[in-house]
Design goal:
Layout (H helix, E strand, L loop, with lengths): L18 H26 L4 E3 L9 E3 L11 H32 L28 E3 L4 E4 L6 E2 L5 E2 L15 E4 L6 E5 L5 E8 L5 E2 L2 E2 L7 E7 L5 E5 L8 E9 L4 E8 L11 E4 L1 E7 L1
Antiparallel strand pairs: 1-2, 3-17, 4-8, 5-6, 7-16, 8-15, 9-14, 9-17, 10-11, 12-13, 12-15
Length: 291
């Protein structure tokens, strides 16, 4: 029997493969595509749902990682909830910590009920009233200062000294001098131990007059001082400009044991067109006791 050519048994271009062959070919293509996208999804190391591109015959989806039911929240939602809960817990912890620190620092027992602290009326005392009787300057007194200007030539010749002793010599024609504003400079007055002091005072400028010339407005004048007593008490004295007389402040009688310190806080500028008079001069300082 004559062999027939193989070409006779090959389907022509116009012939279609039967359904089994078509189905097998389709299945093989799907499997290849499934493996190809599975490898690709694995390389991405994702944990969500990877969707394949759909062709004309439809497509499928590949789940990489754990499959979740439709009712379960997505991983992104769970992550959001976990992050939200973490912030809430952190805020609560910080609030508790701050509350504890505030309570401890304020000395309040957080477990104790609120209470109002009252001070008995018997424990409330008014400040002692200033002395209102007659007074006199303490004569046994010495003075020292943190600043003293060098001697200068006087109008009538000779040298004029400005030592702190001039403050307590009883004369308004002498003075202690410190060049510049003298702000922050201190004068220390010492009286006999145990003296009952009732007031202090000073002439806040140079009260001297020479041949009818008033020197008070030419130099700086002190406007404010602070007085410190040995027992720790202190007070401020404001002074009036253009008043070359004693300006005093009275206090409750206080026995002192140590030096009384006067600190200059503020002073005026020199007189107009008196640049060469840039200095503070005080004619007198006094510590008063009862007469």
């Amino acid at each position: 029997m004559k062999d027939l050519p193989d070409d006779w048994f090959r389907p022509g271009s116009h012939e279609q493969p039967d359904e089994d062959e078509q189905h097998a070919s389709s299945e093989q293509g799907e499997r290849n595509r499934y493996r190809r996208f599975s490898r690709r999804a694995k390389d991405l190391e994702t944990h969500g749902r990877v969707h394949l591109d759909r062709d004309e015959q439809g497509g499928r989806s590949v789940v990489v990682g754990h499959r979740m039911d439709q009712a379960s929240p997505s991983s992104a939602t769970r992550a959001f909830h976990r992050g939200w809960m973490l912030w809430v817990l952190l805020a609560l912890a910080v609030g508790i910590l701050v509350g504890t620190v505030v309570v401890r620092s304020s000395g309040i027992d957080s477990g104790a009920p609120d209470s109002v602290v009252s001070v008995p009326a018997d424990n409330v005392t008014d400040a002692p009233a200033p002395y209102t009787g007659q007074s006199r300057p303490v004569t046994s007194i010495t003075a020292s200062a943190t600043c003293t200007a060098d001697p200068r030539g006087g109008i009538k010749g000779g040298l004029v000294t400005y030592q702190p002793a001039n403050l307590v010599d009883g004369s308004s024609q002498t003075a202690w001098r410190c060049d510049g504003s003298a702000n922050g400079q201190k004068i220390t007055l010492k009286v006999p131990d145990g003296t009952a002091v009732v007031g202090v005072g000073l002439i806040n400028g140079y009260a001297k007059k020479t041949d009818g010339v008033d020197l008070y407005p030419q130099y700086r004048r002190v406007l404010k001082v602070r007085w410190d007593l040995p027992d720790g008490e202190w007070f401020i004295q404001d002074l009036t400009d253009d008043s070359p007389t004693f300006q005093t402040v009275m206090i409750a009688p206080t026995r002192v044991h140590g030096g009384i310190v006067m600190t200059i806080i503020d002073s005026t500028l020199p007189g107009e067109d008196m640049a060469s008079r840039d200095a503070v001069l005080l004619s007198q300082v006094a510590v008063l006791t009862a007469k």
